[in-house]
Design brief:
heterodimer; A: 147 residues; two-stranded antiparallel ribbon; elongated; B: 331 residues; mainly alpha; 12 helices
Chain lengths: 147, 331
């Protein structure tokens, strides 16, 4: 009896599991909400004109441990600086989030996007337009706004 | 005219049973994966077609189009014939299992069983044993150490458990007084034999699991230690044949268990519901087979041998003796 009882208990457990709801998340249709501090794909914060708020100080370039950010500095007529060219090689990026920490104007941010699959290597390089385009669907902003 | 009718009926029954059996084999793989998935709190296959219903077809196409490989070390003729033996015997075995009562069609009696032979049960055991040859030869001819180990285990397990299996069914034979499976079912018209022989039923399920090399007795193909065992060198449709043979064998074991202990096609309602009752009972047993696979871990090899000879065999023998005594005193 001491041998048989555990077997029956096991059968009872698996039967109960059989009638319980599966906990699988059906990935492409169903997506798991990302935690608020998740470090996903980068994006640029926008100002009122829809331009980047980046002042091209170069701190993110300096701090980036994998050196995936390249920056060309431009200067407007009124003397303010802006990024002429700003590129992040997302294949080199390790998503440490230091650029976000270093940025004095909170222009570069790490969003919630984790689906970056492309056919070509060049598509992995995020330029200024790409970083601005990534801005829209971030739930992260809403969760920050709640606070 | 009578001969022609006989031939046509036999052919129709053959084709019907084989095709239905293959269909059930295909969908049994899906049922198994689904049930195992639910036991493990996940969905199982649900991508191919609605609820994954086309999964068996996708699997079939996949296994047909894979590269058919014969290893250089293999004994080629034996290597090729081994899966054929397996699937042939597994499909043949079902021939004697009755799935319904006699029906009247065009003024003639038709028995819903492919071959209603006198020694039906012996035939089942004979075929099951021959089927094990497929496994033994398959592993042996692969020229692979794991394959040989798997075959050796299959051979040892077959010998130890078939003895018990034979003894277990003797109880029902004593009660029914016939080896013909239709007679055994008819003898259960009042009381199913599971009421007279509950222990034998449980022992039959255990020994049957060992016979079809299923968890917890899947020693010949223990993935974790033998890396698939006897079918390690098989690919493409040959592997699929082994797989199908295993499932066909499983369905047959469930069918024989239904016939011997659960009253076969018998059930309330008119007689044409017989096949449906039979299917319900068979699927209940098949569900148990999948359910226990999701529950029990694989037994260790020496434990299997010990269990087979020291526990199952004496219990089966005791069952025979007690049944014989009771029947002798009763009559």
């Amino acid at each position: 009896m001491a041998y048989i009882l555990p077997l029956l208990k096991g059968l009872r457990l698996t039967l109960r599991r059989f009638f319980s709801r599966p906990i699988t998340i059906q990935y492409p249709e169903q997506k798991k909400p990302m935690p608020p501090r998740w470090r996903g794909m980068h994006y640029f914060d926008k100002d009122e004109k829809g331009e980047t708020t980046c002042v091209a100080c170069g701190l993110c370039v300096a701090i980036c441990p994998s050196r995936c950010i390249s920056l060309e500095i431009g200067e407007r007529k009124d003397g303010t600086r802006y990024p002429l060219r700003y590129e992040i090689d997302s294949l080199r990026c390790i998503f440490c989030g230091y650029c976000q920490e270093a940025c004095p104007v909170n222009a570069i941010r790490l969003g919630e996007g984790y689906e970056y699959v492309h056919f070509h290597r060049e598509d992995f390089i995020l330029d200024k337009a790409g970083l601005l385009a990534m801005y829209a669907p971030k739930q992260r902003n809403t969760s920050e706004a709640k606070k | 005219m009578e001969t022609l009718f006989y031939i046509i009926v036999a052919a129709v029954k053959n084709i019907l049973v084989i095709s239905l059996l293959l269909l059930f084999v295909a969908y049994m793989t899906l049922v198994e994966r689904k049930v195992l998935g639910r036991v493990q709190v996940r969905f199982g296959p649900n991508r191919v077609g609605p609820f994954g219903l086309l999964q068996p077809i996708a699997d079939g196409i996949k296994s047909f189009t894979k590269e058919d490989l014969v290893p250089a070390e293999a004994d080629k003729p034996v290597f090729i014939i081994a899966p054929a033996i397996c699937i042939f015997t597994a499909l043949c075995m079902f021939a004697v299992v009755p799935f319904g009562p006699s029906i009247t069609f065009l003024g003639r009696q038709i028995k819903l069983v492919v071959a209603d032979i006198d020694i039906g049960l012996l035939y089942v055991f004979a075929m099951a044993t021959v089927g094990e040859y497929g496994i033994v030869l398959g592993g042996w001819s692969s020229g692979n150490k794991y394959g040989v180990l798997g075959s050796l285990r299959a051979a040892a397990q077959m010998i130890s458990y078939e003895v018990s299996l034979g003894l277990i069914v003797i109880g029902t034979l004593i009660l029914a007084g016939s080896l013909r499976l239709t007679d055994i079912v008819e003898a259960q018209r009042n009381v199913w034999y599971i009421c007279y022989q509950p222990f034998a039923f449980i022992l039959y399920l255990i020994a049957g699991l060992a016979e079809i090399n299923r968890t917890p007795f899947d020693m010949p193909e223990a993935e974790s230690e033998l890396a698939c065992g006897f079918n390690i060198e098989y690919s493409s449709i040959k592997f699929a044949l082994f797989f199908m043979a295993e499932y066909a064998h499983m369905i047959t074991v469930a069918g024989v268990a239904t016939t011997l202990f659960l009253g076969g096609w018998l059930g309330p309602g008119p007689s044409f519901l017989g096949p449906i009752w039979f299917l319900i009972k068979v699927f209940a047993i098949l569900f148990f087979f999948v359910w226990e696979r999701g529950t029990f871990p694989r037994m260790r090899y020496d434990h299997i041998m010990k269990f087979g000879w020291k526990i199952l065999f004496p219990l089966a023998l005791a069952n025979v003796v007690v049944t014989a005594f009771v029947v002798a005193l009763w009559r």
